[in-house]
């Protein structure tokens, strides 16, 4: 059996996908050759498996950072908080150097470059487990080696905007 061809255009498909609200992450690593920091905003993050602990995210084949993530050993996925809209926008445009201007950096326990930002509501240090080619994207599967959970409200992405993001007060139920 084969799939029927789509009866919609890419713009309509994209806007339908946008009705699914997601969180927002910034994913960081460093270039193998010169250790230059590499990072970008990603909303396609999701959980895969608890045992072993696996997560996934997808990256367009046209991303200039693709080659760096394909060859990196580890990366860190930072889940952004409600008050980090500007960071989400910053890491979705401009040069790699400009994204890291005025951004404090540190290293996760197993050595991956990460943001030194206590506002992030969680972070996951991942071993670069595998990559699957899927259409115009690659699916990255990360094996989580270390993680940390905070208590802030999440930044929420929906229909191309952050307007479903709740007010930035700490969550009481955690
Ligand atoms: C909220 C938000 C979510 C995004 N999610 C993704 C994503 O899941 N996958 C992707 O390939 N690009 C995503 N992008 C776009 C990238 O952040 C953007 O194309 C970035 O400039 C790519 O960087 P690079 O070309 O330097 O690698 C997202 C952008 C925003 C603002």
Automatic annotation (TrEMBL):
Alphabetized Pfam families for the sequence: Flavin_Reduct
Q: Which SUPFAM superfamilies match?
A: FMN-binding split barrel (SSF50475)
GO terms (molecular function) for this protein are: FMN binding; riboflavin reductase (NADPH) activity
**What highest taxon heads this organism's lineage?**
Bacteria
Domain called Flavin reductase like: residue spans: 17-164
Which keywords label this protein?
Oxidoreductase
Q: Which InterPro entries match?
A: Flavin_Rdtase-like_dom, NADH-dep_flavin_reductase, Split_barrel_FMN-bd
Entry similarity comment: Belongs to the non-flavoprotein flavin reductase family.
The record's section on PANTHER family has: FLAVIN REDUCTASE, FLAVIN-DEPENDENT MONOOXYGENASE, REDUCTASE SUBUNIT HSAB
- Its protein name is Flavin reductase (DIM6/NTAB) family NADH-FMN oxidoreductase RutF
Organism source for this protein? Paralcaligenes ureilyticus
The beginning of the lineage is:
Bacteria, Pseudomonadati, Pseudomonadota, Betaproteobacteria, Burkholderiales
């Amino acid at each position: 059996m084969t799939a029927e061809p789509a009866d919609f255009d890419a713009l309509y498909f994209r806007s339908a996908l946008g009705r699914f609200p997601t969180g927002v992450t910034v994913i960081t690593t460093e270039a193998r050759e010169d250790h230059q920091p590499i990072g970008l905003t990603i909303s396609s993050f999701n959980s895969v498996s608890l045992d072993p602990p696996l997560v996934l995210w997808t990256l367009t084949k046209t991303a200039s950072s693709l080659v760096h993530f394909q060859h990196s050993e580890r990366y860190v996925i930072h889940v952004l908080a409600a008050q980090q809209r500007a960071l989400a926008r910053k890491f979705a445009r401009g040069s790699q150097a400009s994204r890291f201007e005025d951004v404090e950096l540190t290293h996760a326990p197993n050595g991956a470059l990460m943001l030194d930002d206590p506002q992030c509501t969680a972070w996951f240090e991942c071993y670069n487990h595998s990559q699957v080619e899927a259409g115009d994207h690659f699916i990255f599967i990360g094996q989580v080696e270390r993680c940390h959970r905070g208590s802030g409200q999440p930044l929420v992405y929906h229909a191309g905007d952050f307007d479903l993001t709740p007010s930035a007060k700490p969550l009481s139920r955690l």
